[in-house]
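Deliverable D2.4 — example input (structure tokens):
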């Protein structure tokens, strides 16, 4: 699935939050959306998962305008894991994941074998099959994120949008989740705070500042020490990770 964002401006209460943003995510590419707090990352993502209609510009999937699609068709093309994915009702893990099958069903349709198979496979992919009958509310933060990812996978959408998926997770859960996301083979658009994560996992990064694209390209071409200091206000050392060999960014205060 190829995602193209062209000239998108988004407003909240008539106040522009992002302005004139262009972005392309090629099929199977992991695109990281990074920038300081308040730069417009989450707002831009909302225009992609249809929570906020752009004031101007177009969001298209394989050439089709996302906002002109019927809701169910759009949901079959893109899935989302947001920052605020907690559920307050007492659902089992399997019930939470089954919610991802809604775009494939009519209002009164019963659960079919294909739905059960999709739920089981999604839980297996995120290594949470053991918890199918557990209450979602009893899981740890990292386990909940994996279940919410399984719900998105159950939609069987080729584009996955994630808004700071490692937020509030411990370091082991963060790395495990990013390894998993990277392995999915989907087109990924992910807002990230951690520059080291962006460098290690993303194929392409787009840096937002004050609602506009400041730079975009391969992580090591964009995230130079000079650029990181200018945009993020920290010193940066960039080189191979001493354990993994992946691109690594260490930061310190100015």
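Example output (designed residues):
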């Amino acid at each position: 699935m190829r995602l193209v964002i062209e000239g998108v401006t988004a407003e909240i209460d008539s106040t522009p939050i992002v302005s004139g943003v262009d972005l392309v995510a090629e099929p199977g590419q992991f695109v990281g959306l990074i920038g300081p707090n308040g730069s417009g990352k989450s707002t831009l993502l909302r225009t992609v998962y249809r929570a906020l209609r752009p004031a101007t510009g177009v969001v298209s999937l394989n050439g089709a305008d996302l906002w002109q699609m019927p809701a169910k068709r759009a949901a079959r093309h893109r899935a989302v894991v947001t920052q605020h994915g907690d559920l307050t009702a007492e659902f089992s893990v399997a019930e939470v994941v089954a919610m991802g099958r809604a775009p494939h069903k009519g209002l009164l349709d019963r659960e079919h074998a294909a739905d059960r198979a999709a739920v089981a496979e999604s839980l297996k992919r995120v290594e949470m099959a053991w918890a199918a009958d557990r209450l979602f509310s009893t899981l740890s933060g990292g386990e909940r994120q994996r279940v919410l990812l399984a719900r998105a996978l159950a939609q069987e959408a080729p584009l996955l949008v994630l808004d700071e998926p490692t937020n509030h997770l411990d370091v082991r859960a963060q790395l495990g989740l990013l390894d998993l996301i990277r392995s999915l083979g989907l087109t990924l658009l992910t807002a990230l705070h951690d520059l080291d994560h962006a460098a290690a996992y993303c194929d392409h990064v787009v840096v937002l500042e004050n609602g506009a694209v400041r730079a975009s390209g391969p992580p090591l071409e964009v995230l130079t020490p000079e650029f990181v200091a200018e945009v993020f206000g920290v010193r940066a050392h960039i080189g191979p990770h001493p354990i993994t060999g992946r691109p690594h960014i260490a930061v310190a205060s100015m």
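The longest helix spans residues 141-154.
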